[in-house]
Automatic annotation (TrEMBL):
Annotated organism of origin: PS1 clade bacterium
Bias (Low complexity) ranges: 380-391
GO molecular function, one term: formate dehydrogenase (NAD+) activity
Similarity comment: Belongs to the D-isomer specific 2-hydroxyacid dehydrogenase family. FDH subfamily.
Protein name per Swiss-Prot or TrEMBL: Formate dehydrogenase
CDD domains: FDH
Site residues (Important for catalytic activity), renumbered to this chain: R284, H332
Main location (coarse class): cytoplasm
Localization annotation: Cytoplasm
Disordered: region residues: 378-399
EC numbers, comma separated: 1.17.1.9
Subunit comment: Homodimer.
Keyword Ligase carried by entry: no
Secretion signal, residue range per the UniProt entry: none
């Protein structure tokens, strides 16, 4: 069996010789009772860099000892890239949302042996799910592995946007001390109305984490949360996204990208938001219209925009979100902290062990199975594809 694994580049200075922390805190499970990844074994040290090419998700020993071939590359964009060459005879492809190998219908059609597409993380929108269904390719992701990592990032981004941290940090780095410059856009979040589009694993955790800031919490989702949770968090449910964005000072976006959510935040919806609101989007870049966000920041309809997701990825060097005013963007990092890497690497190993041992992969990791959306996929995604336009990723030039 040939396994093709597309991972992000190593650090420019080479793999770290040591890490800030000697060990990771021990976690016992996820809040809803789901267990952490449970592979039979792992061949890596938790807390090490695993998501880059030399990290290899800790898979080489395991795969080679079992007689399989592992190809790891970061060369994933453009017609002649290494990944396009190897996909033609790969049985399994592993890719990550942070540095996605866009598995378009064309690539799926060229992959005659492909049986399995694994997402080392959460969010399989970089796979043309419709083409995967049509070609009987199963798709799995490591549900929950980094949901709480993202929720932490959301809290950080809400606070840093509203308090205008980026501007204040820049003033210090530039050697300045003009307090008035530093605070002219700085507010407290206390008392604000904060709403999430989707209250799944990330959205709900972000609401829970924001609760101690004494804010008013809102959500919009296709399914309503249990009444006990609404009571616990004093949540306001909205039947429509329009109703929620009209009253919120901060909107955080936490739904998957699929045909229903693509381009959801266009000029029309942004104009229905409370004037001067903030958006934090750690879900997927394509849920927000690129130009509409940039022009709303310019006009003041939005006071700030932060997140870590772009379209495509890597974002072209001239992507307008790199230079628009009052943004707090990071590259796609929230779900790939060293802590999260340990969980998604273990989850990928668990999925491979099941596949190789002819055992069922967990239902919660399942997105597409036997030609249909299934498991978590049937609950959270819709049929179709959201990969169009991904070829623009080849415009990115390494700095
Ligand atoms: P979950 O599956 O737990 O939650 C997704 C939620 O989105 C579900 O509650 C689902 O609703 C809801 N939803 C789906 N479609 C719609 C819609 N059209 N309108 C409103 N709500 C909708 O996933 P997670 O919370 O773990 O992750 C969510 C997304 O976050 C991922 O799909 C991924 O895109 C992104 N993500 C980003 C990461 C990063 O590093 N930045 C890392 C991890 C995830 P219901 O089930 O009720 O239909």
């Amino acid at each position: 069996m040939k396994v093709l694994c597309i991972l992000y580049d190593d650090p420019k200075g080479g793999m770290p010789k040591n890490y800030p922390l000697a060990e990771l805190p021990k976690l016992t499970g996820y809040p809803d009772g789901q267990t952490l990844p449970t592979p039979e074994n792992i061949d890596f040290n938790p807390g090490e860099l695993l998501g880059c090419v030399s990290g290899e998700l800790g898979l080489r020993k395991f795969l080679e000892e079992n007689g399989h071939e592992l190809v790891v590359t970061s060369d994933k964009d453009g017609d002649n890239c290494e990944a396009n060459h190897h996909i033609k005879d790969a049985d399994v492809v592993i890719s990550q949302p942070f540095f996605p190998f866009y598995l378009t219908r064309e690539k799926i059609d060229s992959a005659k042996n492909l049986k399995l597409a694994i997402t080392a993380g959460i969010g399989s929108d970089h796979v043309d799910l419709q083409a995967a269904m049509d070609n009987n390719i199963d798709v799995f992701e490591v549900t929950y592995c980094n949901s709480r990592s993202v929720a932490e990032h959301i809290v950080m981004m809400i606070l840093s946007l509203v308090r205008d941290y980026h501007n204040q940090h820049r003033i210090v780095n530039e050697g300045g001390w003009n307090i008035a410059d530093a605070v002219q856009r700085s507010y407290d979040v206390e008392g604000m109305h904060i709403g999430t589009v989707a209250a799944g694993r990330i959205g709900l955790d972000a609401l829970r984490k924001m609760k101690p800031f004494d804010v008013h919490l809102h959500y919009f989702d296709r399914h309503r949360l249990p009444e006990s949770i609404e009571k616990e968090l004093n949540l306001t449910f909205h039947e429509t996204v329009e109703s929620m964005v009209a009253v919120c000072d901060v909107v955080t976006i936490n739904c998957p990208l699929h045909p229903e959510t693509e381009n959801l935040f266009d000029t029309e919806l942004i104009n229905k938001m409370k004037k001067g609101a903030y958006i934090v989007n750690t879900a997927r870049g394509k849920i927000c219209n690129r130009e509409a966000i940039a022009s709303a920041l310019k006009s003041g309809q939005l006071s700030g925009y932060a997140g870590d997701v772009w379209f495509p990825q890597p974002a072209p060097n001239d992507h307008i979100w790199r230079t628009m005013p009052n943004h707090g963007m990071t590259p796609h990092t929230s779900g790939t902290s060293l802590s999260a890497q340990t969980r998604y690497a273990a989850g990928v190993r668990e999925i491979l062990e099941c596949f190789m041992g002819n055992k069922e992969v967990r239902n919660e990791y399942t997105i597409v199975k036997d030609g249909k959306l299934a498991g978590t996929g049937a609950h959270s995604y819709s049929e179709g594809s959201a990969t169009s336009g991904s070829e623009e990723a080849q415009k990115y030039k390494k700095m």
